[in-house]
Each structure stands twice: as structure tokens, then as C-alpha cells.
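writing this on my phone so excuse typos. first protein, seq and then structure
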Amino acid sequence: MKSGPIARDGTNSVLNLIGNTPLLSFRRLAADVAPVEIYAKAEWYNPGGSVKDRAALAMVRDGERRGLLTPDKTLVDATSGNTGIAYAMIAAERGYHGRTLGALSATADKKYRAPFEPLPIPSTHVAWNSPEAIEAEINEGTSAIILEPIQGEGGIHVAGPGYLPAVREIATRHKILLIVDEIQSGFRTGAPFASVAMGITPDIIVTAKAIANGFPIGLTLVTKEISESLPGGAHGSTFGGNPLAARAAVETLRIFREDGLYERAATLGAEVVDRIEALQHPGIRAVRGKGLMIGIELKQKSTPVMRGLQERGVLTLSAGSTVIRLLPPLIWEPAHVDEFMEAFEDVLS
């Protein structure tokens, strides 16, 4: 993407068509963490994760119209009933991709989808960790597959060995775009992107949340082929790539690398999982995750345990009715692991 004039340092907000020094620095750092095949000088910045999924799905729709994807898809659109180029998507059961209308098309849970149906993109949700289920649902109208490498809202379910590589092969063979949603998993699983660590290069990666230490910025990375299919000005945002957010992302990515926080996340996350498993507590059904993205599945509702942890100074989230979602800061140290375990054991007892 070509930039216009460069805004002077100290500017807090500037039109996203105008380059600025923090944004250019952010682009360089983003290139360092993204796979070479996907960076391809193409990226979009918006506040928030759901917006990034919406951007990715908009690119899929545009790619269909421009013949980027599988040709000869003259079908009846399942949403509008109009005859023309159709586009449909395959996502996973328990998958969560946000609550804007485009992202809701990919989100599985009916409690989020039902109030806003019919949704703009026809979607099929298939069994998680099953390449065969994806293959079985592909037809002439399928344009994209969207998955999380680790399901967050759905209960912290990690993609099994070989799952994402198999899906990558299916998408390539059928000329379907593979979108990987790393909005929650990005930067906290021991590597910048969990999907890349699992051995694949998606066509589109979306991420947000940790990339600027909680400051509202998101990042969509696409291949050169997709980027070149989009006309100038097809995607933009009032606050996208603003200097303040870009500067926060620059410092966050620098600290991740220079302070060894990827390695720390992998080490401390494995320790937490090992220590919880060692408890052999009858109230714990399972513990799973990768790095500092951990789910503790209980044999009871998680809310009372979460409240007990909060009373002891530990903040957690739910991921379904029985799963405690642990997403600690990447600056956690061994002493914080001890503090968490002490509080957790106290609440369980």
C-alpha cells in the first residue's frame, strides 16, 4: 500500500491515507512477525477485533466479484434470493469471530446470531478439528474457510496436530481463501501467530487485542494476490492506523521481542497447565491451552469459582458455562504463577 505525505511526529490523529512515522514503524515490525508469503506490503488497521473479521470477509466478497476465487459461481444467493455470483463460508462449531453483522455470519453461537438474522454471508458451521467435515460441505458457492487456531470464546480448544495443515491443503485445492482469526490467540501462545507455529500460511490473518497491549488497534494481513484485487480506497477507517495507536503497537511488539515474552508465555503457560493437572482435583474435568491462553474446564458452573478468584485479586473470564478462561498479562513472572495457584487452590478447597 502506498502512503501519501508523512505526518509530523506528535500528531495524534490523521487521515488514514496520510502516512505517519509511528505507522511506518509499525508496518516494519508487523513485517517481522508475519509470514513472508502473506505480508506482501498489504495491511489494514482498525480499532477492535470484530472490525478486522469484517474487513477480511469484505475482501472475500470482493475477491469473488473480481474472479480471484473459483470461477463460474453463478448461483442463487441464499440471503437475498438474487441470481449472480454467490459467496458462502465455512466456519467451525463453537467458533467466535465478533458481533458486527459480517463477523456474526462466521460466529457459531445462536444467542449472538439469532437477533440479527438473516445475516449477510451464508455460513455453514462444522465439527471442530475435522478436515473431513469441512471437505464435505464445500460446493460451488464456497469462497472461504474461517477458523481460530485456538477457540477462545468456545472453551479454549486447541487445533489438533495436522488439522490446520489439512485445512490449508483443502482450501488450496478448491481455490478457497483460508482466513485465520488470531484476534485472541495472537502473541500470547509462545509465538506471534499460533497458526504459523502450527505449520501453515493462511491467505488472511486478522489480529488485535494484545498487539498494542490493549490499546484499540487491529491488523489484517493479506497476500499480494488479494491486495492487488482490491481497488484503491476499497477499505479504510477514520481511526485506522492513527499515530497514537500505532506507537502503542510499536512499543508493544518491541517489548515482546526484546524481553523474550513469547518464550516466557510458552514456559509459564506450560507450568500452569502442569501444576493444575498435578492437583488431580475431582472438580476439574480438563485443562487445556497453549502459552498464556488457558482453559480450565470444571465439573460445575464456573461463575462461583471466578467470583472466588476475583475476591482474591485474580481476574478471569468464562468460556462457556463451565470453563474458566485464563488470559494473564504477558509480563507475568513465576511469582504471579505462584500467586494464581495459591488463590485457585484456596477457592477449590
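second protein below, same order as before
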Amino acid sequence: MSLKKARDIVGGAGRIARQLAPFQYTISPMLDSTQMQTLRDAVYRAAGTAQVREAVADFYRQVRADVDIRRPVCNASGRCCRFEEFDHRLFVTTIELAAFVYELEMRSWPAENESARAKWTGGGCPFQVAGLCGVHPIRPFGCRIFFCDPGSGPWQQEQYERRHSQLKAMHQALGVPYFYVEWRQGLAAMGITPPSLSRT
């Protein structure tokens, strides 16, 4: 399928599937070893495909435009990264994880990022550095649409449902197997964090 087709889908084509907001999902079970390998293979194949990376970048630009129009308040509190403390979870799809893995490997990051990840004990996000996101430019969709602003809850819900439907359609258009996994399970599958510390 062409990049134009994927971009058309990202732009709004396709049926909107009803989904729950990212942090209200029932927690998915741990992936077994076969599922982990299948996810890992799919992510690496997608990460190595410029067409996939470009489609995800286009998607993120459109999410940014939605946020710029609505202008929800971000207090930079870091609460969005502390999943257990605030009783929410982050889920990601195959192509989001692929774009993240590629950028994580290709960019230079401050030493503090690696230090925080090395000290991570399994709670919250392993990329939270000094209370804030250490990978903010390449964060997944759920992070980009989640705000502590109490007045933006319904808007966040609607945006997540609409945009996640587009993400699902992009997988089909790009020929990428669709996985929807808890963030730390995905990181563990990719060898970014130790499987023993992956939470559900």
C-alpha cells in the first residue's frame, strides 16, 4: 500500500472505531515468549521502513495540530509518567513502538536518560528523568494526548478514539501486524527494559 494511502487514512479516511481512552483499559495480560518474538520482529521490520516512519511522523504532526487548537493545560508535573501512583496505563501500537525504537537508536540522548533507565525499578515510565519526560520529542501517541487539565477530559477521550482508529487503519494500509500492548511490555519485548521489571 502506498504512503499516500496511509496518509489519507491518517487524515481521516476510514470508519471510527469506538475505543476506551488509553488509561482506562483493562490491563492486558503479559505477552508470552512467542508473542514477544512476533511483536519484536514486527517492530523491527516496521522501524526499518521509511514509509512507516514517515506515516507515524505525519500522524504525530496532526495530533500536535489538534492539541494546538484545543490548548489543554500542561503543568509539567510528571504525573502522566507515574502510572501506578495515578492509576493509569499507557498502551502503544506496533508502528508507534517502531518509530520510537528507531528514534531512540538514531538520536543522541543526555547521559541522564541512560542513568534513569538503569535505576528504574519497574514502576512508572523508565524514561522519566528528574520528574519529566526524557524522550519528549519521540513519545507515543497516548502521551501526546494525555493532559492533567480537568476541563479537557471529554476532548481527550474523543481525540483518542478518533486517532486510535486511524492508527489501526494505518497498520493495515502499511502491511504491519497490529499489536496493542502496555508500554512497558512493549519496551521489554524490544529489550529496552528487563522483562522481569515489566508491569501490567
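The beta strands are 91-93, 128-129, 132-133, 180-182. thats all i got for now
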